Amino acid sequence: MAGRGAVERCVRPGVAICGPPGADPSADTVRRGAAEPCVRSGVGIRVPSGVAALEGDSQGGGGAESWSGLGIRFCVASCGPAGATIGLLTGLSMNGLRLAFSWLTVLPVRGPENVDRKGARRAIAVAPLVGVVLGLAAVALARLLVWAGASFAVAGLLIVGALALGTRGMHLDGLADTADGLGCYGPPERAREIMKSGGVGPFGVAALVFGVGVQAFSFAALTETGRWWGIAVAIAVGRVAVVLACRGAAAAPGAGFGALVAETQGRVLPVGWVVIAVAAAYSAVPEPWWLGPAAVVAALVVCRVVVRHCVRRFEGLNGDVLGAVVEIAVAVTAVILSLSS
Known about the structure:
It is a multi-pass membrane protein. It is found in: Cell membrane. The protein has helices at 94-104, 117-125, 127-147, 152-166, 170-182, 188-196, 202-224, 228-245, 257-261, 268-284, 291-314, 319-337, and strands at 44-48, 65-69, 72-77, 83-89. By secondary structure, the chain is an alpha+beta fold. A hairpin with a 2-residue loop joins strand 2 and strand 3. The relative contact order is 0.11.
């Protein structure tokens, strides 16, 4: 990173370069003064001087900082004494999408061979898109079952079963393991051992029965009332909750998947997903107008409380907790969306 009077660019080469429209990306100078959009199809926004970095990945020096996730990159560079230029560059990270689908579904998608925290961050950042795909598939299945003459209850149960098959059952496994861990009266080390044991105890069985039942009956109610898109929204919100869970919670000792994804998400992207989820829920269930947004907010608040409790109980975040978060968010969202006006 060069000094403030010379080149001012994002710390990651090729991500964004602050300068006037049409400027040569290889130029060593930056025009100061008015708002200066980033060169590569970005949007320049004037903000007060001294703005803090939007996310991590700072390389110091007080000049420019950058962050990436979902393939969206923010560049904060001091392009003048009175302000800064924020370049917002969009473009989905294909590696992140491939990794997310290979992790979170049974689809024959080959992810990157070597996965580090940077790759895991991008995969978690696009997890809601995986939820959208699963949700659309669930809606299609629901319509097909109803067309074939299946009862609404059977349709709801089959949707839950199909989702379990489509995700390798790992979220339900995480729900069961988390319930068993929380039901343990021993220290955090003992609770983590129980979660890794591979068996399912009484708390885990109860959580599975309750979770599957709540989702199945809620999906049945949404199907019966024609709120088809509520099913897709509930499934997608489960993945939005994962993005939020991977912010601000350290990994538990000995965590595998948790160590890769814990504390990888910043502030901007999770907020964006929440806004999108609220808007989608409002569109899916427009009457009463407050029901959709309330369902999303309630589900995410409940999951936040669960994550905080699990972090205290297990001394950090692990993959089982993330699986439980998915199932809890789906259940809470579906229940509220299924309420009649």
